[in-house]
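INTERNAL AUDIT FORM
Audit reference: QA-55
Scope: verify that the stored structure record matches its stored sequence.
Auditor: D.O.
Record contents follow.
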Amino acid sequence: MIQKIIDHKDSFEISTNNKWHRFSIKTMSQLIPIMMERPIEQMTLLNELGLVKKDSKRFANNKYLPYREIANDIYNPVAAKAVREALKIVNASLKKYGHIDYLVVEMPRDKNLDEEKKQIEDFQKKNKIAKDEAYRAFVTAVGDEKTVKIALSKSRKLQMEMRLWYQQNEIDPYNGETIEAVDLIRNPDKFEIDHIIPQSISFDDGINNKTLCFASMNQVKGQKTPMEFLNEGHGQGWAKFKAMVSGNPRFGKSKKQNYLFAENVSDIETRKRFISRNLVDTRYSSRVVLNSLQEFFSEKSDGTKVTVIRGKFTSNMRKHWHIDKTRETFHHHAIDASIIAATPFLNMWKKGGSIFPVKVGEESIDIDTGEILDDKKFDKIMYEQPYNGFVTEIMNADDRIKFSHQVDKKMNRKVSDATIYSTRIGQLVKDKKVAEYVVAKVKDIYSVDGYKKFRKVYDKDKTKFLLYTHDERSFSELEKVLYMYPDKIDQTQNNGKVKSIDISPFELYRRDHGMVKKFSKKNRGPVIKQLKYLDKKLGSHIDITPANANDKHVVLQSLNPWRTDVYLNHEIGEYEIMGIKYADLKFNKNGEYGIKRDKYIEIKEREKVSKNSEFMFTLYKKDRIKVENMDNKENIELLFWSRNMSNNGYAELRPISKTVNDGTIPIYGKGRLIKRLIPKNCKIWKVNTNILGDPYYVEKESENPKDILD
């Protein structure tokens, strides 16, 4: 393999100077054989082999953290960006306060926001399915849903007991005896929820480390693992237990691993591995941050202690302190940060343990482990508030939370979405004259979603369909199906109840006769599955029609906005705005990138900005603004999003503390915030914020707009 790489070295020619691309043949000869044998990260192996040579005093000349240099060692762009921003906050805090005693970092997941959101949604969906299945099974076993609902209202832990009861096939795995559902309600003291691996060892309070068992079994088990406990002659014995756990399809991989854990939990190294799994974050990017911070503060002899913890630990503290997490606003980030910052002050660390590791490697961690405690004592010590009123204080801290959004000023974003659209000239019922429309498609009229899309267009204006325009007799075949078949059918559910569900009439027709066909005298026309229709009138676009095309017109839509320039017309006493898109940017002969002056003037005239108006400032996506009514002094601060071309002077705005506006706000009123940016008799300020969220109000930014090329 190494020889192949050498033979094809030209394939690896690159222009970047980033160090991880510049390996010598000697270095690759050392790395590749090991990496083929072991699933190890490249940088971890380089450090193991002593091939990363760093200055003994790496930060000697740095008064503050060189956040760009540190983030360069993190290859995941999502994590690297988050690290840069976090370290900027550390630097700002050092400048403001001079010294930091404790620094606790929670690293982001190695996913972008959309991936993380989808992962959360998938988890919540699976979680709900599991809860619903357990609830239905429990109600069936008890025989009376009302009794179950009353019991749930009286006991917080019954919800978890139900899930474990269902997951365990109604059996206590420790002794193999059946747990009667009704007994959990009538005799709750007979049962306890046990942590399979004691919490003071595992720091794991998740469902995969919990089991429902008879209280008598739990008291005998104590702080042992199931293997230790059952091999001492208790319960049903290790062999039967192992077979039961291995054969239960409702147990996931992690839960089975906890049940069948065979190592000695009193061993210090074993306990350190649990800490690295569930408390201290040992991922590569986290180690980069931790080791860099430790190195920086050590060189400064500052005494600052540093750790990087896992998100599941923060989530667990939230759960035990009953701090619900709502993602409808951004306040939860600050609340999480407060919980993270409070972790060094938990009473748990007074028992000999520590949250601050001396050193963290990929598969090892040097940290004090502390006492092994029973679950009740652990709960009391671990989840005691760092000081009286802590939880109340952070739950009522909304008014004190500051927000700093990252403004997007980059010039090299994509100019439009990647979808290629075709267009047609048409005239709909509402039109007074012909216009050019973008063509859209119903992809599958037999699916429920496809039918709903068809129906929405059909009910509004069936002349939009190209089939109606060019082949009315074939379109009438579709209409016959609409009259013959319903769009709902009754279906019997697993619980025996009958439920009305949506269905496509075309699907019902297909089941009886096959797919709908275009009209022909012998009924041999092609099948109809997709339908094209005229969607919206063509707006701003990039024409990519090939030179040899005849009637067809091909375009790119959704031209992405870059910035908006704000002007003040002193003659009429009103503000005027003009929007610039990424597609408007070009290179000049000198290789400079920006908007050419003649293009800028063209947009300015099109947007009806007066020649005599005074330039005030430029707004980019996520810039903050303040707007005030000069008559009644009512004011509001919002995020600028983009120029909106629906009307002259309109823009899209967003709330500062949440994703959408769900109420009435001063000046702009209700509904989606696509409004006139500066209403009459109002004044606007651009609000710059530093990394700590401190606001600075700007009435006029500069004499002239930037990035205009001659």
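Auditor finding: record pair retrieved intact. Confidence is low (pLDDT under 50) at residues 16-20, 358-369.
Action required: none
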